[in-house]
């Protein structure tokens, strides 16, 4: 049974919808120091095509607290992307991002 992920940071007008969106791309950045997870976020978003973006989002998996709570949210806010940060376990986050 999969554990319910808890929203710990919300940058979306519809967090429940974003939490349940289809994942077009998932990028595992565990072990990467900040700012590399945010670079990977931008790269993954640039590779989404318009069809993926209509119903899908990207997911970034990170164990970097700074990336989860500062750098990735900052990148999303500057680009006007919606995002939520979900806590999966202690020091492990899943960030969902949608244009």
Protein architecture, described:
The protein is of the alpha+beta class and 99 residues long. It has a single domain, classed as Translation Initiation Factor IF3. 38% of the residues lie in helices and 35% in strands. The chain has a 5-stranded mixed sheet. A hairpin with a 2-residue loop joins strand 4 and strand 5. Helix 2 packs across helix 4 (65-79). The protein is globular.
How do the strands and helices of this protein lay out in sequence?
Elements: E1 6-11, H1 15-19, E2 22-28, H2 36-47, H3 50-55, E3 56-62, H4 65-79, E4 82-89, E5 92-98
Parallel strand pairs: 2-3
Antiparallel strand pairs: 1-4, 3-5, 4-5
Strand content: 35-45%
Low-confidence runs: none
Query: What is the number of independent domains?
Result: 1
Radius of gyration based on Cα positions = 12 Å
Structural class: alpha+beta
State the helical fraction.
Answer: 25-40%
The strand count comes to 5
Order of helices and strands: EHEHHEHEE
> What fold name goes in the CATH topology slot?
Translation Initiation Factor IF3
* Total count of helical runs of at least 4 residues: 4
Q: Ends: how far apart?
A: 30 Å
> Strand arrangement, largest sheet?
1-4-5-3-2
Name the shape in a single word: globular
Question: How would you state the average pLDDT, rounded?
Answer: 90
CATH architecture, please?
Answer: 2-Layer Sandwich
CATH class: Alpha Beta
| CATH homologous superfamily classification | TusA-like domain
The largest sheet, given as strand count, sense and whether it forms a barrel, is:
5 strands, mixed
């Amino acid at each position: 049974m999969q554990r319910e992920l808890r929203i710990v940071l919300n940058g979306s007008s519809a967090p429940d919808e974003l939490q349940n969106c289809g994942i077009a791309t998932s990028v595992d950045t565990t072990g990467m120091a900040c700012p590399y997870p945010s670079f990977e976020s931008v790269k993954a978003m640039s590779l989404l095509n318009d069809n993926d973006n209509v119903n899908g989002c990207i997911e970034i998996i990170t164990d970097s607290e700074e990336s989860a709570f500062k750098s990735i949210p900052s990148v999303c806010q500057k680009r006007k992307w919606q995002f939520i940060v979900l806590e999966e376990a202690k020091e492990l986050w899943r960030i969902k991002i949608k244009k």
